[in-house]
Amino acid sequence: MLFRQQGRSLVVHTPAKLNLFLEVLDRRTDGYHELETLMVSVGLYDTLIFAEDLSSHTHLRVARREAPSLRSQDDVPAGAGNLIVRAADLLRTHYPAVRSRGVRIDLYKRIPVAGGLGGGSSDAAATLWGLNRFWNLGLSRQRLQELAAQLGSDVSFFLGPTAAAVCRGRGELIEPITLPLDLHFVMARPRSGLSTAAVYQHCRPAESPKRVEEVLELLQHGQWGLLGSKLHNALQPAAEALNPEVPRLKRTFARQPVLGHLMSGSGTTWFGLCAHRRQAKQVAARLKAISSDHVVVARSRP
Ligand code: C5P
């Protein structure tokens, strides 16, 4: 989370994530799935600007001017359905001191919606983090992460102390890790997204699950080439069956000079791990030339 005070407003930049590894271990009785996933936050940001509002509710305004290639499917709800509004309401419910505090939040969307990049979760985390500061609540990271887990499985990750983590449980149990070097990625989000719930509904827990340790080891030793061949996402078959854009992207990335490639989260974004930024930019240029996908280059965050 990057932030700066701008007069009386607070500006927060909150990142997207990629899953370099995701295994589905079990289907739980509460409707969720038990996971082991390696999440890495990347330098593609939504921006939230918090300002005083004389009302007693959250006034969310969504601007998309900085990401003209996002399409109508990427429309973000500005009402109670938005996780930002739900995050602010959650704080008001738990803390009487801010129960009648209004806030205006301007959201500048750059992270594609329903793309498996955690944009909605990241916005929710930024709201908890930003309002904790803006309203002087003084909540600890641990308390913010507890609240985050009530909003969604991925939200806690974005409040973690590190930019990368192994996440377990339904995704909310965070084991921080440090990346030794920057990783470079090219990402492509097709015209349509996928509903996370639908993808999980169609997935099958692994009979002999892969474990994250091998990927972590390669990561720690900077063995990018081997790492590329070990990327794994157990949600991929379900996403491929649900949206033909997903297998199309898989075929497209298989022809690119990348170290490895994978779908992120529940899709539909596909990403390539690249040897360096120049390669990521070259692949991005090729992808832009042959498709109308939303193509972005980003590196992992320190
Ligand atoms: O937690 P979140 O609201 O992001 O999850 C959206 C949906 O994805 C859940 O309602 C559930 O159907 C599915 N899900 C799951 N197992 C997880 C995370 C999400 O089944 N670990």
Number of helices: 9
Q: Please give the number of β-strands.
A: 12
Low-confidence stretches: none
The amount of helix comes to 25-40%
Largest sheet: 8 strands, mixed
Rg computed from alpha carbons, rounded to a whole number of angstroms: 19 Å
Bound molecules: cytidine-5'-monophosphate
Run of helices and strands = EEEEHEHHEEEHHHEHHEEHE
What global shape is seen? globular
Q: Give the structural class.
A: alpha+beta
End-to-end separation in angstroms reads 11 Å
User: Beta-strand percentage?
Assistant: 25-35%
Average pLDDT confidence is 94
Q: Quick recap of the structure?
A:
By secondary structure, the protein is α+β, with helices and mostly antiparallel strands. The protein has nine helices and twelve strands. The strands form two sheets. Strands 1, 2, 3, 4, 5, 6, 7 and 9 form an eight-stranded mixed sheet that branches.
Would you give an account of this structure?
By secondary structure, this protein is an alpha+beta fold. 30% of the residues lie in helices and 30% in strands. The protein has nine helices and twelve strands. The chain has helices at 83-94, 119-134, 141-151, 196-202, 213-220, 224-230, 236-242, 245-254, 277-290; strands at residues 2-6, 9-27, 33-53, 58-63, 102-108, 164-169, 173-177, 184-189, 232-233, 260-263, 270-274, 294-299. The strands form two sheets. Strands 1, 2, 3, 4, 5, 6, 7 and 9 form an eight-stranded mixed β-sheet that branches. The protein has a four-stranded antiparallel β-sheet with strand order 10-11-8-12. Strand 1 (2-6) and strand 2 form a beta hairpin. Helix 1 (83-94) runs parallel beside helix 2 (119-134). The longest helix is centred in the middle third of the chain and has 16 residues, at 119-134. The protein is globular, with a radius of gyration of 19 Å. Bound molecules: cytidine-5'-monophosphate. Cytidine-5'-monophosphate binds next to strand 3 and helix 4.
